[in-house]
Amino acid sequence: MKVLITGATGTIGQEIVKLCHQSNIDVNYLTTSKNKLNTASNYKGYFWNPNNKEIDVKCFEGVEVIINLVGATIAKRWTSSYKKEILASRVHTTKLILESLKNTNHSVRHIISASAIGIYPNSFQNYYMEDAPERDTGFLGEVVTQWEEAVSEFKMLNIEVSLLRIGLVLSKEGGAFPKIAKPIKYGLGAVFGNGKQWQSWIHIKDLAHMFMYVMQEELSGVFNAVAPNPVSNSKLTYTIAKKLDKKIFLPGIPRLTLKLILGEMHVLLFSSQRVCSDKISKLGFEFEYDNIKSAVDVLVD
User: Fold this and answer.
1) pLDDT at residue 229, as a whole number
2) In degrees to the nearest 10, what's the CA dihedral of 218, 74, 79, 51?
3) Separation between Cα atoms, residue 231 and residue 244, nearest integer Å
4) Facing residues of 157 across strands?
5) 187 CB neighbour count, 10 Å cutoff
6) Which parts of the chain have pLDDT scores under 70?
7) In this predicted structure, what is the pLDDT of residue 272?
8) How far apart are CA 42 and CA 70, in angstroms?
9) Chain-centre distance of CA 170, in angstroms?
10) What is the reported pLDDT for 231?
11) Which one of 1, 87, 239, 289 has the fewest CB atoms closer than 10 angstroms to its CB?
């Protein structure tokens, strides 16, 4: 079997590539860097330039499943030009793949795409299931809605569509976790605001396994890619501090302070989304890290 992965060289992508190779699944991947092209028998790179609508259609040869992870990081100041890049890196890339498939003989039967829990509105009370009708009306909600709509268009080609709405990914290798843990390590840890905002998280190994599970079980639809037990920002901060044997002395960082420093993207730190993963669990997926202590224990040296 062969899959095509966009975003294969990113933190999540690398984990999925490892699992594919362990299962004897060959991987094709798309990259915008010609110096990242690899030609191993089970790991082949193909060049694309979505800005110029350029793609090497040989990437589709023998591919049954596309795993779509590409997207510019949202953890960078949201200038008006960068907001356009965040949106384009998700929506335009997806549309380029779709249009290319329309004009190519291919064997693709399933696309499994990253999405984000940012589609759900900020709430301290709601517990969001996949069928929740509420939508975030801010920038992130707009991005995720357009992204999911673009992926859903693959149904027109009789390709099954799966969307994994990903929460806060906890990994040693990158993303948010090292940035959260670093100030705590140096005795400078603090919660954001009152620390009561819900953070729906997932350990990177569970996330990679979830992509594989959806592929191997041929599941379609929307799935919340979060661990079963969301925690408050305060609980997350104090759990990391306890593991590092550090105290939290500083008061909560005021929202206004971070708004002045980070601009609009400060909402990432204050947004509260309590998200439910029962749907994937009821279909047989088992989390290795189902509570925050077990996840932090393996992430903190």
Assistant:
1) 97
2) -40
3) 18
4) none
5) 13
6) none
7) 97
8) 20
9) 11
10) 98
11) 1
Is the Cβ–Cβ distance between 253 and 192 less than 8 Å?
yes
How many helices (H) does the chain have, and how many strands (E)?
10, 15
**Structure-token pair, residue 232:** 């408050």
| 268 closest CA partner among 135, 136, 172 | 136
Closest to 166 in 3D by CA, of 229, 127, 123, 113: 113
Please give the single-letter amino acid code of residue 292.
I
Question: Is-contact 288 203, C-beta < 8 A?
Answer: yes
- CA-nearest of 209, 197, 124, 200 to 166 is 200
Distance (Å, whole) CA 157 – CA 11: 30
> Residue 81 and residue 4: Cα distance in Å, rounded?
29
CA distance 274 to 204: 19
Question: CA–CA separation, 80 vs 94, rounded Å?
Answer: 21
Q: Tell me how far apart the alpha carbons of residues 275 and 296 are, in angstroms, rounded to a whole number.
A: 19
260, with CB counted inside 10 A (0-12, 13-18, 19+), is: exposed
Residue 264 identity (one-letter amino acid): E
Alpha helices in the chain (DSSP H): 11-22, 80-102, 139-152, 176-185, 204-216, 233-244, 255-262, 267-270, 278-282, 292-299
Token pair of 161 as six digits = 């569509």
Residue count of the chain: 301
**Residue 175 and residue 167 in contact, taking contact as beta carbons nearer than 8 Å:** no
